[in-house]
Amino acid sequence: MAKPARRCSLNDFIDWENAQETRHEFYLGQVFGMGGTRRVNGLVAGNLSAALHRHLKGSRCRAFMTSMKVQVASDAIFYPDVFVTCDAIDLKTDMVFRQPSLIAEVLSDSTQAYDRGVKFAAYRQIDSLKEYVLIEPEARRVEVYRRNERNNFELVDQTGQTELVLDSLGLRLAMDELFDGIETASADPANPTNAA
After folding, report:
1. In the β-sheet with 131-136, what is the strand arrangement from edge to edge?
2. Is 137 contained in some domain?
3. In a domain, 173, yes or no
4. Given the DSSP bridges, would you call strands 163-166 and 171-174 parallel, antiparallel or unpaired?
5. What is the tens place of the pLDDT at every residue in 14-58?
6. CATH (domain of 56)
């Protein structure tokens, strides 16, 4: 994650950020520039978003990708890789969403600690959030943090399973579809030492 670019209020940040060519996130008065997306992250986020779009067709819920802002309380604005909202007010907003029911982040070495730490701590403040999904493309690791009846998030590790199960949306997605286009290490043409 980049160093803070500037300090400001949340409203000042939204006005400023809307005028920028690149994306920035806001947390506790600090502004952070976002780096570019890696190919494998983009593929996985796109695969998940497409599956969610198909699954939610005809429902009151919609899936969105990286270019949409999610506000957490009065102190954070993030760009989740993929999120779903079923909230009527959210579905009429142009830029800032506040009531997602599912958020997914596709991890990389540079964002993993941030997504697991700061972001997850902030996202847990969203009352509407039912599931938080963390995906590591190369390792094919998938962790689903699901809100339970005690209002705590429990880890459901789905790594190695044949399907990604998202209870909040009633979706079962084949892992092969989620990771479509992602080569395993043994099939990586740029790394012949791993070839079978």
Report:
1. 62-65, 82-85, 100-106, 131-136, 141-147, 153-157
2. yes
3. yes
4. antiparallel
5. 888 888 888 888 988 888 877 666 788 899 999 999 999 999 999
6. 3.90.1570.10
